[in-house]
Amino acid sequence: MLEKQRILFHGSKEIVEFPEIRMAKFNKDFYFGFYCTLLSEQAHRWAIRYTGSGVINEYMYIPDKTLKILKFPEMTEEWLDFIVKCRSGKKHSYDIVEGPMANDTIFNYIQNFIDGKISRAAFWELAKFKNPTHQISFHTINALTTLKFRKGYEVYDEK
Protein backbone atom coordinates (compact mmCIF):
# COMPACT_ATOMS: atom_id res chain seq x y z
CA MET A 1 0.00 0.00 0.00
CA LEU A 2 1.33 3.41 -0.97
CA GLU A 3 1.70 5.88 1.88
CA LYS A 4 -0.26 9.12 1.77
CA GLN A 5 1.24 12.58 1.65
CA ARG A 6 1.48 14.21 5.08
CA ILE A 7 2.49 17.51 6.58
CA LEU A 8 5.60 17.26 8.74
CA PHE A 9 7.11 19.81 11.12
CA HIS A 10 10.73 20.63 11.98
CA GLY A 11 11.63 22.88 14.92
CA SER A 12 14.72 25.02 14.41
CA LYS A 13 16.33 28.38 15.12
CA GLU A 14 15.81 29.41 11.50
CA ILE A 15 13.81 28.81 8.36
CA VAL A 16 15.06 25.61 6.72
CA GLU A 17 13.84 25.75 3.13
CA PHE A 18 16.47 23.23 2.01
CA PRO A 19 16.94 20.49 4.64
CA GLU A 20 20.39 19.00 5.18
CA ILE A 21 21.84 16.02 6.99
CA ARG A 22 24.45 17.25 9.46
CA MET A 23 26.88 15.41 11.63
CA ALA A 24 26.47 16.44 15.26
CA LYS A 25 28.44 16.07 18.46
CA PHE A 26 26.10 13.36 19.74
CA ASN A 27 24.38 10.48 17.97
CA LYS A 28 20.61 10.75 17.82
CA ASP A 29 17.88 8.14 18.20
CA PHE A 30 18.02 7.05 14.56
CA TYR A 31 21.60 8.26 13.93
CA PHE A 32 22.49 11.39 11.98
CA GLY A 33 19.69 12.75 9.82
CA PHE A 34 17.16 15.51 9.30
CA TYR A 35 14.41 15.05 11.89
CA CYS A 36 10.75 15.98 11.57
CA THR A 37 7.53 15.11 13.37
CA LEU A 38 3.79 14.83 12.71
CA LEU A 39 3.21 16.72 15.99
CA SER A 40 3.34 20.52 15.74
CA GLU A 41 3.54 20.77 19.58
CA GLN A 42 6.68 18.65 19.55
CA ALA A 43 8.25 20.79 16.80
CA HIS A 44 7.40 23.84 18.93
CA ARG A 45 9.35 22.33 21.86
CA TRP A 46 12.30 21.61 19.54
CA ALA A 47 12.24 25.18 18.20
CA ILE A 48 12.27 26.96 21.58
CA ARG A 49 14.42 24.53 23.59
CA TYR A 50 17.57 26.68 23.81
CA THR A 51 16.54 30.32 23.66
CA GLY A 52 12.78 30.45 24.15
CA SER A 53 12.10 31.32 20.51
CA GLY A 54 12.53 29.62 17.16
CA VAL A 55 10.92 28.62 13.89
CA ILE A 56 8.57 25.82 12.96
CA ASN A 57 9.16 24.70 9.39
CA GLU A 58 6.37 22.86 7.56
CA TYR A 59 6.98 20.37 4.77
CA MET A 60 4.80 18.26 2.55
CA TYR A 61 6.14 14.73 2.73
CA ILE A 62 5.63 12.89 -0.56
CA PRO A 63 6.46 9.20 -0.03
CA ASP A 64 8.72 7.40 -2.48
CA LYS A 65 8.20 3.63 -2.53
CA THR A 66 11.71 3.07 -3.93
CA LEU A 67 13.32 4.23 -0.67
CA LYS A 68 14.35 1.89 2.13
CA ILE A 69 12.10 2.81 5.07
CA LEU A 70 11.98 1.43 8.60
CA LYS A 71 8.89 2.13 10.75
CA PHE A 72 8.32 1.53 14.42
CA PRO A 73 4.60 2.11 15.13
CA GLU A 74 5.31 1.99 18.88
CA MET A 75 8.07 1.45 21.41
CA THR A 76 9.09 -2.21 21.05
CA GLU A 77 12.11 -4.36 21.81
CA GLU A 78 13.28 -3.85 18.21
CA TRP A 79 12.86 -0.06 18.58
CA LEU A 80 14.92 -0.05 21.79
CA ASP A 81 17.67 -2.20 20.26
CA PHE A 82 17.79 0.01 17.14
CA ILE A 83 18.10 3.22 19.21
CA VAL A 84 20.80 1.67 21.40
CA LYS A 85 22.81 0.82 18.27
CA CYS A 86 22.31 4.27 16.70
CA ARG A 87 23.11 6.14 19.91
CA SER A 88 26.23 3.97 20.21
CA GLY A 89 27.43 5.25 16.81
CA LYS A 90 26.42 2.34 14.58
CA LYS A 91 25.26 3.41 11.10
CA HIS A 92 22.27 1.85 9.35
CA SER A 93 21.31 1.57 5.68
CA TYR A 94 17.80 3.09 5.78
CA ASP A 95 16.82 6.21 3.85
CA ILE A 96 14.04 7.04 6.32
CA VAL A 97 13.29 5.84 9.84
CA GLU A 98 10.04 6.63 11.64
CA GLY A 99 8.85 5.93 15.15
CA PRO A 100 8.55 7.14 18.74
CA MET A 101 11.15 9.54 20.02
CA ALA A 102 13.31 8.88 23.05
CA ASN A 103 12.68 12.26 24.69
CA ASP A 104 15.03 13.49 27.43
CA THR A 105 13.50 11.27 30.10
CA ILE A 106 13.34 8.19 27.87
CA PHE A 107 16.89 8.92 26.70
CA ASN A 108 18.08 8.84 30.32
CA TYR A 109 16.40 5.45 30.74
CA ILE A 110 18.07 4.23 27.53
CA GLN A 111 21.45 5.48 28.72
CA ASN A 112 20.94 3.74 32.06
CA PHE A 113 20.06 0.55 30.16
CA ILE A 114 23.17 0.88 27.94
CA ASP A 115 25.32 1.47 31.03
CA GLY A 116 23.86 -1.60 32.76
CA LYS A 117 22.32 0.48 35.56
CA ILE A 118 18.81 -0.82 34.88
CA SER A 119 17.47 -3.99 33.30
CA ARG A 120 15.47 -4.20 30.09
CA ALA A 121 12.36 -4.94 32.20
CA ALA A 122 13.02 -1.85 34.35
CA PHE A 123 13.38 0.27 31.20
CA TRP A 124 9.92 -0.81 30.00
CA GLU A 125 8.34 -0.18 33.40
CA LEU A 126 9.73 3.37 33.46
CA ALA A 127 8.97 4.12 29.79
CA LYS A 128 5.34 3.01 29.68
CA PHE A 129 3.95 6.12 31.37
CA LYS A 130 5.48 8.70 29.05
CA ASN A 131 3.51 10.80 26.55
CA PRO A 132 3.45 9.66 22.94
CA THR A 133 6.03 11.24 20.68
CA HIS A 134 6.83 10.94 16.98
CA GLN A 135 9.86 11.43 14.78
CA ILE A 136 10.69 10.71 11.19
CA SER A 137 14.31 11.05 10.15
CA PHE A 138 15.74 11.43 6.68
CA HIS A 139 19.22 9.93 6.20
CA THR A 140 20.04 10.27 2.49
CA ILE A 141 19.81 12.89 -0.24
CA ASN A 142 17.14 10.78 -1.94
CA ALA A 143 15.13 10.80 1.29
CA LEU A 144 15.35 14.59 1.52
CA THR A 145 13.82 14.93 -1.96
CA THR A 146 10.53 13.64 -0.48
CA LEU A 147 10.20 16.89 1.51
CA LYS A 148 8.73 20.01 -0.10
CA PHE A 149 9.02 23.19 1.98
CA ARG A 150 5.65 24.89 2.62
CA LYS A 151 6.39 27.65 5.13
CA GLY A 152 8.24 28.64 8.26
CA TYR A 153 6.90 30.70 11.15
CA GLU A 154 8.28 32.05 14.41
CA VAL A 155 7.24 30.58 17.75
CA TYR A 156 7.96 31.59 21.34
CA ASP A 157 7.98 30.10 24.81
CA GLU A 158 4.59 30.96 26.25
CA LYS A 159 5.86 31.04 29.86
What features would you describe in this structure?
This protein has one domain (6-156). It has helices spanning 40-48, 77-87, 104-114, 120-127, 141-144, and strands spanning 6-12, 34-36, 53-61, 69-71, 96-99, 135-138, 147-156. Helix 2 (77-87) links the parallel strand 4 (69-71) and strand 5. The termini are far apart. The longest helix has 11 residues, at 77-87. It has a 4-stranded mixed beta sheet. Strands 1-3-7 form a 3-stranded antiparallel beta sheet. It is built from 5 helices and 7 strands. Helices cover 27% and strands 25% of the residues. The protein is α+β, with helices and mostly antiparallel strands and 159 residues long.
Strand fraction: 25-35%
Task: Tell me roughly what share of residues is in helical segments.
Answer: 25-40%
Q: Return the string of H and E elements.
A: EEHEEHEHHEHE
Shape: globular
The largest pleated sheet is described as: 4 strands, mixed
End-to-end C-alpha gap:
43 Å
Question: Strands, helices and their partners?
Answer:
Blueprint: E1 6-12, E2 34-36, H1 40-48, E3 53-61, E4 69-71, H2 77-87, E5 96-99, H3 104-114, H4 120-127, E6 135-138, H5 141-144, E7 147-156
Parallel strand pairs: 4-5
Antiparallel strand pairs: 1-3, 2-6, 3-7, 5-6
Keywords:
alpha+beta, four-stranded mixed beta sheet, 5 helices, 27% helix
